[in-house]
Amino acid sequence: MSEAPLLLVVDDDPSVLLLVDVLAEKMGFRVKAVSSGLQALEHLRDGLQPHVILLDIMMERIDGLTFMNHLREMPSVEGTPVVAMSTAAVLDRYGEQLHVNGTLLKPITQVTLSQALERFR
Length: 121
Hints:
Blueprint lengths: L5 E5 L3 H13 L3 E5 L2 H9 L6 E5 L7 H8 L10 E5 L1 H11 L3 E4 L4 H8 L4
Parallel strand pairs: 1-2, 1-3, 3-4, 4-5
């Protein structure tokens, strides 16, 4: 049996990290949850190879847009799909600039998370 796909979740809200961890594991993902874009970039530079990244857009220090700019400079994770998550207003404002593979509206539910991640399993 093949190993479950790895989901990297990046959000500065601990309740979102916990919710996504529980729900995504039920969907068959292994989950690595980090609370900042900086932590996520460090894990990726250290060789973490997620199947998909679930990225909060509005975070302290390194926001989603800055994270995406850094991610594009990392050949080791080139092509890794990214799903941006935030409120509708934030996604409307920054969506075009992000160049992501999908979006997930907050607040997150089991149904919306499943719809956002289904094609990456």
